[in-house]
């Protein structure tokens, strides 16, 4: 699925782009409204921030809708009811208020496409280590061909470590991506989640601890 992110905040974009890319989406980003109308026919979904430096997002939403039927999801810190109504009336298909969970954003993207009778075209991303298979697109984990039930956070932690494909995934990165904070409580929770993953998967050596740095996959990594 081709997604155009219209977001002026580099920190937001820097966190969101890799998170969505790992889930099989092709992401392009513009930091201003300039150039958006030239790109609307190249993408399937537009994630539109309203607080742009060169044009009001609601105005841009109307302009997009005037020339294209592309799916538009407003992603904004403006959370008042009047703001949401204004965005939807301007032509947005959905409206998500910051801060939000990436999984919720992905679910809304998929829901918008389903409502339009479309299907995602991204190729599935599956990472295999021995008899363990992590399907990043379907959020499915198989061990020796059998599905293993994981909580949302457990899968997110595993997906981040697996997505590094053998490289070290830092604790700070996991904490920021999954919990949104890097405090002592979140750090302890990460330790618990890693321990639980090792137990549930029955492969204690699958997630190696790199002391003082983070985690990496143990074993030969394959991708399909």
Describe the structure.
The chain is α/β, with parallel strands linked by helices and 224 residues long. It is 40% helix and 23% strand. The protein contains eight helices and 13 strands. A five-stranded parallel β-sheet has the order 2-1-3-4-5, sandwiched between helices. It has a five-stranded antiparallel β-sheet with strand order 9-8-7-6-13, covered by helices on one side. α6 packs antiparallel against α7 (171-179) and α6 crosses α8. It is elongated. The two termini are 18 Å apart.
List the helices and strands and how they pair.
Layout: E1 2-6, H1 10-22, E2 26-30, H2 36-39, E3 45-48, H3 57-67, E4 71-76, H4 81-89, E5 94-97, H5 102-115, E6 126-129, E7 132-135, E8 140-143, E9 146-147, H6 152-163, E10 169-170, H7 171-179, H8 184-201, E11 207-210, E12 214-217, E13 221-223
Parallel strand pairs: 1-2, 1-3, 3-4, 4-5
Antiparallel strand pairs: 6-7, 6-13, 7-8, 8-9, 10-12, 11-12
Helix pairs in contact: 6-7, 6-8
Overview features:
alpha/beta, five-stranded parallel beta sheet, five-stranded antiparallel beta sheet, 8 helices, 23% strand
Strand content: 15-25%
**Structural class of the helix and strand makeup?**
alpha/beta
Which spans have pLDDT < 50 for at least 5 consecutive residues? 119-123
Order of helices and strands: EHEHEHEHEHEEEEHEHHEEE
Helix fraction, binned, reads 40-55%
């Amino acid at each position: 699925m081709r997604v155009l992110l219209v977001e002026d905040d580099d920190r937001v974009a820097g966190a969101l782009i890799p998170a969505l890319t790992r889930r099989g989406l092709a992401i392009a980003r513009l930091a201003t409204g300039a150039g958006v109308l030239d790109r609307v026919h190249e993408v399937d979904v537009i994630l539109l921030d309203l607080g742009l430096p060169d044009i009001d997002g609601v105005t841009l939403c109307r302009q997009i809708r005037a020339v294209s039927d592309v799916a538009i999801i407003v992603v904004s810190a403006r959370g008042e009811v009047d703001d949401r109504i204004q965005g939807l009336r301007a032509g947005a298909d959905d409206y998500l208020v910051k801060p939000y969970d990436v999984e919720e954003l992905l679910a809304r993207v998929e829901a918008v496409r389903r409502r339009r009778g479309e299907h995602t075209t991204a190729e599935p991303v599956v990472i295999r280590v021995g008899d363990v298979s992590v399907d990043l697109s379907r959020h499915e984990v198989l061990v020796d061909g059998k599905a293993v039930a994981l909580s949302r956070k457990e899968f997110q932690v595993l997906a981040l470590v697996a997505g590094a494909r053998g490289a070290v995934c830092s604790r700070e990165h996991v904490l920021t991506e999954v919990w949104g904070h890097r405090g002592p409580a979140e750090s302890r929770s990460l330790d618990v989640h890693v321990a639980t993953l090792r137990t549930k998967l029955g492969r204690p050596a699958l997630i190696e601890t790199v002391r003082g740095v983070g985690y990496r996959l143990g074993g030969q990594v394959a991708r399909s």
